[in-house]
Design a protein that fits this description.
heterotetramer, A: Rossmann fold, OB fold (Dihydrolipoamide Acetyltransferase, E2P), 2 domains, six-stranded mixed sheet, globular, B: mainly alpha, MetI-like fold, 12 helices
């Protein structure tokens, strides 16, 4: 398979604006890729999107979009869809008028615009919302309309600024799945900015970690999270026992997930490619393979024992490497040592799937 | 009974003095009006001429304030520049200066023998005792109201709305026309109504710059001085009714 | 160069017309002033008498507005009552009515042969051509500014602060004095400054109610009519400087 | 021990105010008691406090405080300390002036007031904050000053409106402990309003559950949470495996907690009376007593098996009654039945202590 074509290239981008900074950011986004930029509040994520959208002009550096240097082009000549964190739906228009806006300013007749709006609304499942006033929409509905509005102009690139952060937990999950689904259906290129590793792991083909205006690490989410290249990256991607796998069988909601070196049982309705994570506190270590209600029982060998006050951290190689936290008391009790064979037990209901 | 309402009772009593002083005149005037006199006033050609002069002047002044003031307000709402604070302060001087002084300032700068005025004369614009003078004096004392109201309106709009419109392909102008203006219409409209009312209310600057053609506020003074208090009552009641209408329109515009 | 700034350039160009019309007169007048004339004006006893009359009137009007208007504003900020909306509208009429009409309304209600005026005369308060008349006319046209400013100030205070003060043992009055007033001082002070400036600026109502004792705004008109434009320049510049001072004070009070 | 004296009695209190309602609330608060009122947003909790404080007058019903009918008394004559959710510190005063306010309006001289402020500040550990302007204080500091201000007047009753809700998670924990400590030191009577069961369980001597303006259940937190009398109460006190216990031994941070019928090991620095909770998903069921890294291994008998899709819920009597969620698969695998003896294993790090 040949390397996909580069759609967006950022070359040494720098910008100061209010209290925010972008420092010498270089990045390549491939055509068709879903790229997640993850970083804490104040890292400059929003400013980065606004530079790409053309809302601000960089102090230095170039932006190459689809082979064209757009650094000096105003937003209206870039064809980049932008969904800000607060959605910014036009409050004086209906949902449908919002979606049609980009088409109408492009000179589409009302009839032509309605046709495109109808088509995208069908595909995004928001047909029943079109006549509603924006102020009557829920957060999740507003997010869908904002997505539809940005997608209606068939942008080269979709920029999503913390698209899930303003939503409650339930809607957040729903919209996350929605993003996954419409992305599969429509196949757009997107840059999605977030502070939540779940979004990065679940949605991102690749991700970048941003901190203090700089890009610290770029790679596949699973690689970045399992192999953070610095303490800073580790501190906010710090998720243990994160694995990428594939659902290969199920009984009801109990799914069997192949994670390369091992099989993990978890409760999920999802199929296909998934990410799974197990909290190190939730894994029980035994010396014998005992029959318990825990669906997961993996044989492994202790590679490393280190202090994690008030607990002790074990690295256990069990096909894949697990981190397990146990009490000091347990280490002595079971006489745990590096090189010792152990069994890891954890419940299917303690495995997070996303 | 508990005493919690004590302060409100006292304050209401004290405050009702202010209400009385302000409302009694508004209530007495209509009561003292002779209906036949009122009917005559409505027929009086001098009154209707003065009214149309005033309304024409105030409407033109408001129009000019809209044309020149709204773009200024937008720039001031969105851009930072040197001495912006000083400019803001200077633009508010016409609202705090004695009205006759405002008239002197305008006449001094724009009378037909002044350097600017002579240029204007060549263009056919003379301000002394013309409608142009009325418009200019009214613009000077009232346009700052519209500028600050429009500016406040623009400042309240989420800039992300403009950003998104641009990314969707709208030019900056188109964005202004289709997003910014519709969303600040209330602020601009209420500012325009207040500007218009302020222009109509002007006396001092008009006495200096353009006592003729006679505006309605000056006609009230003329009638009062020539024929006494009772002769001014019918015009007063007509204009009082108009002010009430304006205030009620404003309440509607602001959606309270 | 990218074209993003195009709209701001155009708008700045258009807006600068408004800036020019408004600022040119303020800049020209000081330039045209003869320093010796200015010095003479500062010595002129008629001018200083008119200034003290005006300041006394405006200060008394503002004081009355504080005494009666602030309690009213507090009640309106904290209590709902029937016809509150209508009362609000009526209290704003003096701000939109022609100034000469305001004068007629005041004179009609309070002149010494009117029913209220005769009661006032018995108390020694006659308004025609007295300082009382000036104060009353100024109060009528300017106090609504203070009332609405104070009201906005009170509305912005977290009511929980007052609730907590009461639970801590402060009476409603003590709470008002120690919590509410200190926290709304900015709003009340800036309202008072604007009220005072509005009172000083008045021409129309004073021409009707009390042309004598001569206030400064009327003296400007008298000088202008008697001796021509140039004779009014020194007073104009003095008052312009005062207005600038007021506007700058306001900017400080509001902490911008 | 004789029944403590009633300090506050609410008799059939009703009030409508804006969109909030109080419906026929009757309640007795004992002298010295820390009473928690728990309910969701909009339940009328704040309005209830404001009625007790005298900020609003009830539409009907009476309020008897310390034997006196205060229903018609204004707030300044009730001597009730009120700490609103936003603290409502006077922004034009220093922290110290805030605390002195109630004393000064009571006619204390500056010297007398300073003495009391100094004394209470020492006891509350806020001496170094006294000269600070309110706007420079952090959320937790503001909360301490607001508490000190309310306590300085030696109120008969302290009313706390969601005292922890505006704080971040860490400060919340800190202030919760702080409330426990100063309560022990000063021994005041308090009504604490919250939507968080942790606060109710940790702080409350007794609690009431409020919903839609009505009091649904009153009792000790442990009783209310373990025996909710209605679905509504269960839905927002719904915490499983909540036990009240006492720390009886420890090794480092591993504490041994006596919970009546059983011993539970958990990680905590706390001593004395504590509440512990174990998530039903975290408990593993085995048929044999196996040696594992899990510090808790309790023998019990299955009393009840019920569906909890996609899981199965077991009630296991093990001295105390545990609820355990396992997969259907595990039920079949281990042949779990009512009456069967099982062992419950869970890790010390999976026990929540509060």
């Amino acid at each position: 398979m040949s390397e996909p074509e580069i759609l967006l290239e950022l070359k040494g981008l720098s910008k100061s604006w209010k209290e925010f900074r972008i420092r010498n950011v270089s990045l390549e986004i491939r055509r068709g890729e879903y790229f997640v930029v993850m970083g804490p509040t104040g890292a400059g994520k929003t400013l980065l999107l606004q530079l790409i959208a053309g809302i601000h002009r960089p102090d230095s550096g170039r932006i190459i979009l689809d082979g064209i240097d757009v650094t000096d082009l105003p937003p209206e000549r870039r064809n980049v869809g932008y969904v800000p964190q607060n959605y910014a739906l036009f409050p004086h228009m209906t949902a449908g008028e919002n979606i049609a806006y980009g088409l109408r300013v492009r000179g589409y007749s009302k009839g032509e615009a309605d046709e495109v709006v109808g088509e995208i609304s069908r595909r995004l499942g928001i047909e029943e919302l079109l006549d509603r006033r924006v102020s009557t929409l829920s957060g999740g509905e507003q997010q869908r309309i904002a997505l539809a509005r940005a997608l209606a102009i068939k942008p080269k690139l979709l920029l999503l600024d913390e698209p899930l952060s303003a939503l409650d937990a339930e809607t957040r999950e729903e919209i996350r799945e929605y993003l996954r689904d419409i992305r599969r259906a429509l196949g757009f290129t997107a840059i999605h900015v977030t502070h939540d590793f779940v979004e990065a792991a679940d949605l991102g083909d690749r991700m970048a970690v941003m901190f203090g205006g700089e890009i610290l690490q770029v790679g596949k989410p699973i690689d970045v999270m399992n192999n953070p290249r610095s303490e800073v990256v580790a501190s906010f991607t710090g998720i243990k026992n994160l694995f990428r796998g594939r659902v290969v069988g199920r009984v009801g909601e109990l799914a069997e997930i192949d994670v390369g070196g091992a099989r993990i049982y978890a409760l999920t309705k999802r199929g296909g490619e998934v990410s799974v994570a197990v909290r190190p506190e939730s894994i029980i270590v035994t010396l014998e393979p005992v029959k318990t209600s825990a669906r997961n029982l993996l044989k492994g060998v202790i590679r490393e024992i280190s202090e994690k006050p008030p607990l002790v951290s074990l690295k256990v190689e069990a096909g894949i490497e697990f981190t397990v936290y146990v009490t000091r008391n347990a280490v002595e009790d079971l006489n745990l040592k590096e090189g010792k064979n152990v069994y890891l037990a954890f419940k299917a209901s303690d495995v997070t799937v996303f | 009974m508990r005493k919690i309402e004590g302060l409100f009772l006292t304050f209401s009593a004290v405050g009702s003095v202010a209400i009385l002083i302000l409302l009694v005149p508004m209530i007495l005037a209509p009561l003292m009006t002779d209906p036949t006199q009122l009917a005559e006033a409505l027929m009086d050609s001098e009154i209707s001429r003065a009214l149309s002069t005033t309304f024409a002047g105030a409407s033109l002044a408001t129009l000019l304030a809209l044309i020149f003031g709204v773009p200024l307000a937008y720039v001031m709402a969105r851009k930072d520049f040197a001495f912006k604070g000083l400019l803001e302060s200077l633009l508010n001087i016409p609202l705090t200066i004695p009205h006759s002084v405002a008239g002197i300032l305008v006449l001094l700068a724009y009378h037909s023998r002044s350097s600017i005025g002579s240029i204007l004369s060549n263009l056919g614009i003379v301000i002394e005792d013309t409608l142009w003078g009325i418009v200019l004096a009214m613009f000077f004392v009232s346009s700052p109201i519209l500028i600050s109201s429009a500016r406040a309106g623009f400042s309240m709009i989420d800039e992300n709305l403009e950003h998104v419109a641009r990314t969707l392909g709208a030019s900056h102008y188109k964005t202004f026309l289709t997003v910014t203006l519709p969303l600040s219409l209330k602020a601009i409209a209420s500012g325009a109504v207040l500007t218009w009312a302020r222009a109509v209310s002007e006396v001092g600057a008009l006495l200096i710059v353009a006592p003729y053609p006679k505006s309605i506020a000056l006609l009230v003074i003329e009638r009062f001085e020539a024929f006494g208090l009772s002769s001014a009552i019918p015009i007063t009641v007509i204009l009082l009714a108009m002010s009430l209408a304006i205030v009620l329109i404003l309440n509607c515009v602001l959606g309270r």
